[in-house]
Write a structure and sequence with these properties.
The chain is α/β, with parallel strands linked by helices. It folds into two domains: 149 residues, Rossmann fold; 165 residues, Aspartate/ornithine carbamoyltransferase (Rossmann fold). 33% of the residues lie in helices and 15% in strands. It contains twelve helices and eleven strands. It has a five-stranded parallel beta sheet. The protein has a four-stranded parallel beta sheet with strand order 3-2-4-5, with helices on both faces. A two-stranded antiparallel ribbon has the order 1-11. Helix 2 packs across helix 11 and helix 5 packs across helix 6. The longest helix has 18 residues.
Length: 348
């Protein structure tokens, strides 16, 4: 299967073979993502970013990924700065701007909007997050991170034990990640959340029908025992109905050093899609794990560039040009990615 010319709207389009192909392209582009190599295979191409919701990592990493391949980027952020605020339909807006760009990335609070946009355009559309629905490119970079972390530890994703912790009802990153994880075999997946924020039943059924063991629990101490991966996510308060509260999202769901040390294996990998609220009382991912090598959140964010470059190259049909297009960069880059990064995380 090829991604050439395809929309990337949901993780449901992927299988193991396609994931392996994409990850292989991402591996080739790692030195480009880190500024060690230059690759201009998208020179002359133009990306349109349509973000109707706030974004830091997703929008900027899409920008960086496209520009590192030699392309140009045009950004629109918020509905107020578009003609939709004047009454123009989303379909009309989509058809118009598809005449300006070669590919679109869309983030929208309405789950169906990205599908409406894709249906009104003749160019590929990548989903940058559709409400509480999915976030396929985040899940791809998450799984790419997991595969690299497990390989470093001599582990396989199949037959591993994984805990998804936090707001599983509205957390679109875990929805997409569960779809991808379900492609593997014999997983034990702990869905750890308050009773008001469970994983949607259709996703649980999908995973169970794939032969995976699903355990739902509201007790992190139960869900974190002997796991290989802890994937935490924040409370998506912006998606709550006006009558909903997170009143029972207590301190038990704060992922900190004490919780990890007490209940997880010494080689557990801790991930989070970010942003996190590490302030006391926020009950999210604590910053007291920042110097713990098991914390992979910044290795995770770094993975966004090669994965999104790989998607652009594959969807626009230039991935085969990468080996012959690589050349050395001439500017200075430091040896280490960041001052608190793990000792093994150096640029090869």
């Amino acid at each position: 299967m090829s991604l050439l010319g395809k929309h990337i709207l949901s993780c449901s389009i992927f299988d193991i073979e396609l994931l392996q192909q994409l990850f292989s392209v991402a591996d080739q582009l790692q030195p480009v993502s880190r500024g060690k190599k230059v690759c201009r295979i998208l020179e002359g191409a133009v990306l349109g970013n349509l973000f109707f919701e706030a974004s830091t990592r997703t929008r900027l990493s899409f920008d960086s990924a496209f520009m590192r391949l030699g392309g140009s980027v045009s950004n629109t952020t918020g509905e107020a700065v578009t003609s939709i605020s004047k009454g123009e339909s989303l379909a009309d807006t989509s058809r118009v701007i598809s005449g300006y760009y070669d590919i679109l990335v869309v983030r929208h609070p309405d789950e169906q909007a990205v599908y409406e946009i894709a249906g009104a355009t003749h160019i590929p559309v990548l989903n940058g997050g559709n409400g509480a629905g999915e976030h396929p490119t985040q899940a791809l970079l998450d799984l790419y991170t997991v595969s690299r972390e497990f390989k470093r530890l001599g582990k396989e994703i199949s037959s591993s034990r994984i805990a998804l912790v936090g707001d599983l009802r509205y957390g679109r990153t875990v929805h997409s990640l569960l779809r991808l994880l379900s492609l593997f075999q014999n997983l034990t997946i702990y869905c750890v959340s308050p009773s008001i924020l469970p994983m949607p039943r259709e996703l649980l059924d999908m995973a169970a029908n794939g032969g995976h063991k699903i355990v739902e629990t509201g007790d992190p101490k139960v869900g974190l025992k002997d796991i290989d991966l802890l994937y935490a996510t924040r409370v998506q308060k912006e998606r709550f109905a006006c009558t909903e509260t997170a009143f029972n999202y207590g301190s038990d769901f704060r992922v900190d050093q004490a919780l990890v040390n007490a209940h997880c294996k010494p080689d557990v990998i801790v991930m989070h899609p970010l942003p996190r609220d590490s302030r006391a009382g926020a009950n999210d991912l604590s910053d007291d794990l920042n110097q713990d090598e098991r914390l992979a959140i910044f290795r995770q964010t770094d993975a966004g560039i090669p994965i999104r470059m790989a998607l652009f190259a594959s969807v626009l049909g230039v991935d085969h040009l990468i080996p012959s297009a690589l050349r050395d960069a001439t500017w200075y880059r430091p040896k280490y990615i960041g001052p608190n990064d793990a000792s093994f995380y150096t640029e090869k």
